[in-house]
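INFO batch 0412 | record 1 of 1 | parsing
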Amino acid sequence: MRKEMILNKEDLKQAEKSVMLSTILSPILYVIDMMARYFTFVLEEKYTRRSTLLMLNVLLAFTLAAFPADISLTLRALFTVWFGVSIKLFRRYRYR
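INFO prediction complete | emitting tokens
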């Protein structure tokens, strides 16, 4: 008995896209999970991927708002606003 399988071109493209996406996302998610374990260990609270990304957003906003010494006041004000908004988002969505 002969067995045949018909594959559409679209099915193959979709499979290639999913493999490509998983290949790209796997190392990124691994790093995020490592950072979550680090934050959990240091801060003694449970951190998920989402809360880790929110924390990294706060850290990046703080770094850009506080440390560059020779940037314009407009940029510094924008970074400070971003820092305030990121803290508010972190407090709101950390446990969801």
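INFO post-check: Residues 9-43 form the longest helix (35 residues).
INFO record closed
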